[in-house]
Amino acid sequence: MAKNELACVYAALILVDDDVAVTGEKIQTILKAANVDVEPYWPGLFAKALEGINVKDLITSIGSGAGSGPAAGPAAASAAAPAAAEKKEEAKKEESDNESDDDMGFGLFE
User: Fold this and answer.
1) CATH number of the structural domain spanning residue 12
2) Is 48 a member of any domain?
């Protein structure tokens, strides 16, 4: 990631953590205080991108997408259990079918 982008991300996170509105001017103020020079369009670009987004909620919901994370754990496990049992039954059925073929002399390796 480019230095300009990373610096703006950190500045925006500082503002969000302090419950301050994220604006281009405030991002630029933090960057100047940290002696970080960025292209002049980056602070405004990041402020516009974060406009109307609750960054704290965004950060806390990372990893809880569809099918992953702790929220899907028990539901996914209970849904997977019948499927696993079904596969075991199919394997047993195939195995018993193969045994009956062997008993009649129709084995694969005879």
Assistant:
1) 1.10.10.1410
2) yes
Torsion of CA 37, 43, 44, 50, to 10 degrees: 170
CA neighbours closer than 13 Å in the CB half-sphere of residue 101: 11
Instruction: Tell whether 104 is covered by a domain.
Output: no
pTM above 0.85, yes or no: no
Q: What does the alpha-carbon distance between residue 64 and residue 21 come to, in Å, rounded to a whole number?
A: 26
The low-confidence residues of the chain, meaning pLDDT below 50, are: 67-83
Neighbours of 6 (CB within 10 A): 12
**Domain that residue 9 falls in:** 3-62
